[in-house]
Amino acid sequence: MAFENLSEKLQKALRKLTGKGKISENDINQASREIRLALLEADVNFKVVKKFIKTIKAEALGKEVQESLNPGQQIIKIVNDELTKMMGSDTASIIEAKHIPTIIMMVGLQGTGKTTTVGKLANYLIKNKKARPLLIAGDIYRPAAIDQLKTIGASLDVPVYSENNTDVVAIVENGLMQADRNHNDYVIIDTAGRLEIDDQLMDELKNIVDVAHPENIILVADAMTGQVAATVAEGFNSKLKLTGLILTKLDGDTRGGAALSIREVTGLPILFTGQGEKLTELDTFHPDRMASRILGMGDMLSLIEKAQQDFDAKEAEKVAQKMRENTFDFNDFVDQMDQMQKMGPLDQIIKMIPGMANNPALKNFKVPDKQIAHTKAIVYSMTPAEREDPDLLNPSRRRRIAGGCGLSVVEVNRMIKQFKQAKDMMQKVTSGNFKGLSNLPGM
Ligand code: GDP
Question: Which parts of the sequence belong to the SRP54-type proteins GTP-binding domain (predicted)?
């Protein structure tokens, strides 16, 4: 699986920062060194790495991070945001023409997966845009390519225009006329590839551009080739003005460097990634999701953002401090409930934690408002000393409390148990250990 190594190393470097109350410059330097190495090992372009590390360091050392509740998590968020930016921030898409047909020209070196990707794209357009595409077989030097495209076309029930002719410009012109006659809304032109970029190939491709005027000139690049993919993209782009990229073979044993640096090096958006040999194995490229996946973050980032938005930072810092000093008491428990209620339904918040969203135990998990009201009633029936020291709560005190709030002793006992579990869980979160979260009450 692509990125496995990189993902592991980045997570390892960042894990060391989570749970720390303060992060020193030294910590940041060390993490930066590890991140830098991980990126270079993943074959990310070194200039891209240099710029990335510089930004991360500057932001991590910033006042905002240093004064935040959990600087480690803030740094993860910074790394995630920068990774996303590196890959292009927004999800790009194929430009659709105002008039029909939309013409897509596919270019790339031999063996990168161009012909296969023509088929994948046709399939994508049919499924997502109810398109009626026509494919033009413009890779005339490799007879097998024409047959391959015909086979792909037949399997998708998509027409393929081909000629037994060496004049590829004429083939494309004739193919476009056929698309007009048949009212195809998309035309995808497969073109010849070479082992490397040469002038003859570029001239031929330019001639096709002159007659077809494609809105989309997409380079198919092989992610397995790492940085070479970026160099190739630059070469094609300087001659043809590409509009986007498709990275193939991201399912393979690639180190991922191409996906990480090609955007920054070329300025071109990655539109899709190929994730296998089958015609269905084409994925829209979402830089943000890819970054989260690399960092193994799940929806944790949305959770951090939400906490940032809704939590009173001073209040939260107070709680974190109490967690560290192990002095979290029933008063804080009630305060926490108020804070959590501000963020929205607790069950939904918990599901944003990585690994929790699909946890079957959580399927019907709900924290009813009534339960929160009961918890508060129990706490309000305690003496100030009891609220501060749960260990005082012997059976006779528990009976008195139950009588005071009109609930059963069983309910009082349950609430005290839940308090202890919650305390335990929060201590794990504050120390950056999410593993114990499955022990939450009700899970
Ligand atoms: P072309 O010479 O650029 O037209 O390349 P082809 O379309 O003939 O593909 C070359 C080889 O790469 C074929 O064996 C394809 O099945 C394979 N291939 C294409 N895309 C992918 C992909 O995303 N993942 C994997 N694993 N193999 C791919």
Answer: 101-296
